[in-house]
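Z., the sequence and structure:
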Amino acid sequence: MRKTLTFTVIIFSVITSSCEDGRITDLENSVSELTELNSKLIDSIQTLQEKNISSFYLIENLDNDNFKVNETSKIHFDFGYKNYVSEYDVYRLYGKNHEERELILKNQRLSEFDFEFKPENIDDDRIKLEVVMNINGIEWIIPADFQINVTE
């Protein structure tokens, strides 16, 4: 009888242990699957953000059709939609071949901004800007380049 009881306890322990091992294996597999799905979700979110940023464009809204030499005019800019966006800086490109860059707005958040422009001469008829956003360590540049009419 004692041998039967000992044998029953051993069998019960083995069955219980192997059931727990099976549950642990199932849980480990579930954790692995969830980790993989989480990684895919993070990649999908990043891809969506990249597609969203790469589709941005700037729209200039001019108060005047003509700009006068040595007279400051305000130009309003909007992104393709009005919303809060990732923090960005705005640079004006200037110089002979627009190779020089001047920071004109820093740490902007709204998807629109104003830029004041004062043409220095009648040939100063091109406005070239760059919006720079840093998202997850990647620098995104959104350009604006347009001609204006400048009069005396």
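Helices lie at 2-54. The longest strand covers residues 84-94.

Let me know what you think.
H.
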